[in-house]
């Protein structure tokens, strides 16, 4: 019986494992190998150059600009999105006898906030291009309509404003999803805890800090990992929205865009693969650090 069970498990898992190796692990292995070569992307022999591609990254000013911009995005986008998502989810759960039932029409608000998730990132980028248009855009038009003409700007053409404008779009497009995610996590918290807090006279902030936040910590941790991965990418929205793309003056350059340009504009596929490997390990390191930090906090709380 045990032998037959073993054969069944092997037969069920082996096809999936083979597909995973061929279509997931094999491309990773090829990328790691190509990062050690000078391959130009066309048929021909790729010469092994060792770690020279990685050494070259340290002296590439454009790549270093991209790393700096991705680091800023990693510091801002996840924190801003999670903070707004938690705030909106908490506001939607105010009121009610158990302190968690939610305001009237909360489900409708969730649908409205979730709406950007129904749009592809490409469509979001195109829409916000029109919003940021310096002459006919909705943002400058609204500022002029209320007499704030002096605040109207060329949002995507000024180096000091271009990256914040892109990050604002990333937060806007993501916050609705995480608001719904956090709202579901809050719904799963036993209502008895909120009722006890009400009986003790706890304020809304104290209830959030002592009950809601600790019990949705795991959800927040997962959200940070996913948002961090998005912040370390940013290719699609920068490619579509910004001048250059990546401008002005490299103000919105990201690693994915530098990688794409190196491979498909200059034909440096080996060098681009090195960028991809560096980005892979940066993303992996970020995810491991976040997960370990969450584990440490759970141990301390225990």
Description:
This protein has helices at residues 2-34, 52-57, 61-92, 106-114, 121-131, 138-145, 159-187, 191-199, 204-215, 217-231, 235-241, 255-264, 269-301. The chain is mostly helical. It has one domain: MetI-like fold, CATH 1.10.3720. It is flat, with a radius of gyration of 24 Å. The two termini are 43 Å apart. The mean pLDDT is 88. Residues 67-290 form the ABC transmembrane type-1 domain. This is Sugar ABC transporter permease. It holds the Pfam family BPD_transp_1.
Write the layout of secondary structure elements.
Blueprint: H1 2-34, H2 52-57, H3 61-92, H4 106-114, H5 121-131, H6 138-145, H7 159-187, H8 191-199, H9 204-215, H10 217-231, H11 235-241, H12 255-264, H13 269-301
Helix pairs in contact: 3-7, 3-10, 3-12, 4-7, 5-11, 7-10, 10-13, 12-13
The CATH topology comes to: MetI-like fold
Outline:
flat
Integer tally of domains: 1
Distance between the first and last residues' Cα:
43 Å
CATH superfamily: MetI-like
Please provide the count of β strands: 0
Low-pLDDT runs of 5+ residues are none
Write down the Rg: 24 Å
Kindly estimate the percentage of residues that lie in beta strands according to DSSP.
under 5%
Transmembrane segments: 71-90, 111-131, 161-181, 219-241, 268-291
Family: Belongs to the binding-protein-dependent transport system permease family.
Main location: membrane
Keywords: Cell membrane, Membrane, Transmembrane, Transmembrane helix, Transport
